[in-house]
Write a structure and sequence with these properties.
- This protein is α+β, with helices and mostly antiparallel strands.
- The chain has 2 domains: 3-100, Pdz3 Domain, CATH 2.30.42.10; 121-222, Roll (Pdz3 Domain).
- It has helices at 47-50, 71-75, 93-100, 121-125, 161-165, 185-190, and strands at 3-6, 14-21, 31-33, 39-42, 58-62, 65-66, 80-87, 129-136, 145-147, 153-156, 172-176, 179-180, 201-208, 221-222.
- It has a 5-stranded antiparallel sheet with strand order 1-2-7-5-6. A 4-stranded antiparallel sheet has the order 8-13-11-12. A 3-stranded antiparallel sheet has the order 10-9-14, with no helix packed on it.
- It is elongated, with a radius of gyration of 19 Å.
Length: 227
């Protein structure tokens, strides 16, 4: 399981991102939630506990997309999920319980600090966006991608795992399972990136809409072979 967070000052809400996979025996993530996608119970020894999710965490995004309803419908049929959660400080627990336990309640939202300059302003001006995809393949299937040594997607095969998850040519791969990519992804795959995973899936964070202002190597690396 991969886990990372953006920590705010003491007493403020944290934003936490983690990846969970269903338990191979029970088929469950090991979570109970209220109507607002807030965690009310984490099963002991479950994938969610191993991913360091805790009671009072509220899931706000799945696979990089904002939630607009109960997470159950988004999780159906998926073996793995990339979750973004809000983690409130303990001093907010009582206010959360009081508000969210009321009939017809809305999700509790902590007061937000004054906004600073958006970190993605430069990217937005250039027409780019940051997206996260869960790339999964069957036992005898290949990912169907060709990627340059600079981690730019050169081609996506038709009807492949790469096409199904939404990847496109010219996407720049930035992160793998939340960790910044510091070498060609083909090298990671050659080292057995998925060897210790419960399923043949990986979360890729990409930048889309970039304008390539430098030459890209013509050497193509297919994501297949030992995978």
């Amino acid at each position: 399981m991969n886990f990372f967070s953006r920590k705010n000052l003491l007493g403020e809400t944290q934003t936490v991102t983690c990846r969970i996979e269903r338990d191979p025996t029970s088929g469950s993530f090991g979570l109970s939630l209220n109507d607002h996608n807030r965690i009310t119970k984490v099963a002991k020894g479950s994938p969610s506990e191993k991913a360091k999710l805790i009671v009072f965490d509220r899931i706000i995004k799945v696979d990089g997309a904002p939630l607009d309803g109960p997470i159950k419908k988004f999780a159906e049929g998926k073996q793995a999920l990339l979750l973004t959660v809000e983690r409130p400080p303990k001093e907010m627990y009582r206010a959360i319980v009081d508000q969210e336990n009321a009939e017809g309640s809305q999700a509790y939202s902590a007061p937000k600090p004054p906004p600073g300059p958006p970190p993605s302003a430069k990217a937005a001006e250039e027409g780019t966006e940051i997206l996260t995809f869960i790339l999964s393949k069957g036992p005898q299937e290949i990912f169907g991608l060709e990627v340059s040594p600079e981690n730019v997607v050169l081609a996506v095969d038709a009807d492949s795992a790469g096409q199904r998850c939404g990847l496109k040519a010219n996407d720049l791969i930035l992160k793998v399972d939340g960790a910044p990519l510091k070498e060609p992804i083909s090298g990671l795959l050659a080292k057995g990136l998925l060897a210790k995973k419960a399923s043949n899936s990986v979360a890729l964070t990409v930048q889309r809409g970039i304008r390539l202002g430098r030459a890209i190597s013509t050497t193509e690396h297919a994501l297949h072979g030992e995978l």
